[in-house]
Amino acid sequence: MSTPSQVVGDIPKNARQIAWIRRRRALKRSWRTFRGSPMGMIGLVILTIFALTAVFAPLLAARSGLSPVTAPGQPFQPPSGQYWFGTDHQGRSVLTLVIWGSRVSLAIGLIATLISVFIGSIVGILAGFFGGWRDVSLMRLTDWFLVIPFLPLVIVLASVMGGGVGGGGLGLTAFVIGITSWPSSARLVRSQTLTVKERPYVERARALGASNWHLITRHILPNVGPIIFANTILIVAIAILSETTLAFLGFGDPNAISWGRVLDEAFGNGAVIAGNWWWVIPPGVAVVLVVLAFTLIGYALDEILNPRLRRR
Amino acid sequence: MSLLSVRDLTVSYKLQSGEVPAVRGVNFDIEKGEVLGLAGESGCGKSTIASAILRLLPEGTKVGGEVLLENENILEMKPGKLRAVRWTEASIIFQGAMHALNPVKRIGDQIAEPILIHQQADEKEAMVRVGGLLEEVGLPQRRLRDYPHELSGGQKQRVMIAMALACNPSLVIADEPTTALDVMVQAQVLKLLKELQRDLGLAMLFITHDLSVLAEVSDRLAIMYAGRIVEQGPAEPVFTDPKHPYTRALAGAFPAIGDAQYRMKPSGLGGDPPDPQNIPSGCSFHPRCPVVVAECSDTDPILYPAGESRSAACLLVRQPAGASTTSEVPGD
Known about the structure:
The structure holds 2 protein chains of 2 kinds. Chain A has 14 helices and no strands. By secondary structure, chain A is mostly helical.
């Protein structure tokens, strides 16, 4: 070989700069496409508002407002200048509850999604990559989770594991949602893996002497990654909805205020019959908006990451 | 002892409709530094042989015989040993370079892949070697930061060649390295391959359907038809004076540019290659053979000696007395 050392010697420094310039440019390009999608922008704005609310909850509403003991107002107050969304049966401000509830709902949604996508990606890649009996058994397991009615499964898991898993609480809720919502990602990832593993560069890498681990981490994963990412965003919406459902049915953490929990209490205390609309609508709208935001962003991202969907 | 020696290689693919014999008993040897050209129509089993040598065939494919690389049978190697042999002793230049590169990874990283897999160097050293390799195949070093879509077809093929050389193999299998390239680029790539082969003393198995390409680069030629070698010998005489009617048809299909006589001459070969699931009795070539005789339809010819270190599987080549019992390829 010729003497490349002096030429190559200064590449790393340049290379890092070049890489950063490239990365920035790619990011800018994606951002521009994203901005071009009105749906995605609406979703992003809604989500940003809720994320900021969750992060700055202590600044927006005092934590003491969550306790029935230190609740500031009278029970069942309709909206007023002081309590924008009125008060609940214990005199707590519904606005305070919704603000603090955003923390729990978003956190559980994200954690459950991570668990779900993690399991789904592993199952999907293993099934798609290895094929044969491993594919069949993993996919039948996936089908099993897919076919079993989601809600009863989650309820059973939540109540059975409530005693066993230490602490229970929020972690448990996230875990239960996570391990029941992965089948759709698994199928998606499997189908993508099936097409990627047949590409010639995978055969080439195998001819290089690459191990299965190498093939999966270096060739399959980078090509399946974007799909996993777009799917993740959509799963968050489902996870938040599931958390709300669980909490509404009384299987959430009894110590944490989430939107589902507020709805549950409102329902349990006859808010609907008594016409206390201000107690039901704010948490309900919050759930709908956040789920909508994630779905909109998910579709917009799908369009960016999957050029075939892009409008020309 | 030959570097690579293939003995009685048989490969059958498993389809739903049954087994399909793609390679039916192939023997050949490649010496160190020698280029063997393997030619034949689409579907005659050329690429199957290439894949069989490194055991890259799909699962469930039946492979028989022996593939001895430096005296070790690749077909019986344990997976770990097999992975270690892949690329360090024999590498492949794949057909269709455009698809053999991962679109989401830089070409430098991809060329470095075999070096890192076989732990021949650390990452920094590997990149230095990749830079050198790129220059060897006529690309500037800075291109190692490029993605495959930033290269032309010819450049991608050069990258594939660089990758094939990354671990200093003693054997390179070039599986139609010039298909999908235009003629000018083809010529450049061929020239590069020939030069590298000579400079590095590489042994090569060069697979193509383009006889004129083979005559240029190879020392010896083997012509395949329906999963068997029907003629082999030194490149020049096989091309200019074919003994097997199939080789004659192949060679006759190329016009000689500038020779007025050839204007109307390029002659094809009638008919289609046989269905591998339904190979004709006797000589598999007899339904298309222009010089067929009655015996062809029930006698399956083996490779008969046909001149100096040459052989051909044709009853017309068979010497009338005694010699017809020779079953092995002479001259090896």
